[in-house]
């Protein structure tokens, strides 16, 4: 019964995470210490100077602190209102967060990039990453004693973990205590120069108010661009208004609110059309980078980069490739743009179609003999964006190369999790080296991944691949039409065949069951 409640609670945490994280600095600064004292001191002993046992010896992201408070509610009976929880998350994330450099390489967990294939060392993967992402470990900081407490907590809360895969074949507890604890304390220490320096240099939230030019890309939908207007609200809160469009002309417009944690961790809720989308960005040095994704379907998301007005910056060129001997329309996206762009050797700007500080749209022609390769383009004095010239496609890769979709619905409470794919074309540069071109239109299909998948008729039961590269999995629950009435899981090859040229690539898709434990950090 306890584990059932835990699954329900952690799943609901994932759904309400962004809403729970919206709070103001003023409220947190004023009431954070009192909430901490009133709600936490019953179990966590005061140690002086507004510090408490366990709590004051950890640093985490906003999502990490939200999960900790949720665990106190579920496992230890903590009674706390939504407002107090928001206040406490804000207070702790500001006071005991992570420096920007400490989140590099593992932000995919906060951004809900759930198809990421992690590459941690074998010991961390086998000791910790077999149950949850390695990023969840890397996004917290503790001294050795606290890492030891964490190991003991795991064993006490989940005693069967010593008998599961990658633990029953070894002395898991001695390895965890004697080998992993010192390693974690060294790699993810509580006190670091990066954190000390960030606390001194942390900017005020109000510097983010203003207009932001943005560019992005959503798998299966394409490039997007526009302007996001940020208005200051109380404390570290903001009002957000977005006006933009996809490359195919579909509007990308909406409004909502956001909050800044720890000087750079931006979290927002924006309703785009009829869809609520979460924003998880790192806001640093006049630039925002991260991901926007649908609140109810985190697999539907877009990469996002934005530059603030007043700081000239070239963000992207859309599309980012041109074929030798062809003419196409290109759009440069950035902030403080002016003048005529230089697209590099062998590429001529034939017409400037539109020009503003945020967007320059041109017609460009690549010479027939333009050497295939990457050009660094410039807009006045601004550089940093590349345009690829290619002559032919040599290879097609399916992106992502490995993906997981999940059955759902069919009378149940859990929605289906789609697979979403694009065909990434590759050529060769003038030296014969591999050259990434970009995403090109393709025809999509699925096939059995192996003989067992063919025998089980996975193509028939696991779901349907649509023309746009979206795979919609089957319904949840036992299927009477399948052998032994199994569910609609499957093991599939994803086939992309370019519409122009017919080159073909393959990816791997696992269609599996629902994810019941779905916390903010996977």
UniProtKB/TrEMBL annotation:
SUPFAM superfamilies: Cytochrome c (SSF46626), E set domains (SSF81296), Quinohemoprotein amine dehydrogenase A chain, domain 3 (SSF69298). It comes from the Bacteria. The keyword Signal applies. One of its GO terms (molecular function) is heme binding. Residues 1-28 form the signal peptide. Keywords: Signal. Residues 31-195 form the Quinohemoprotein amine dehydrogenase alpha subunit haem binding domain. Residues 207-308, 311-391, 396-521 form the Quinohemoprotein amine dehydrogenase alpha subunit domain. Pfam families: Dehyd-heme_bind, Qn_am_d_aII, Qn_am_d_aIII, Qn_am_d_aIV. This is Quinohemoprotein amine dehydrogenase subunit alpha. It comes from Pseudomonas alkylphenolica. The lineage of its organism: Bacteria, Pseudomonadati, Pseudomonadota, Gammaproteobacteria, Pseudomonadales. The gene is peaA.
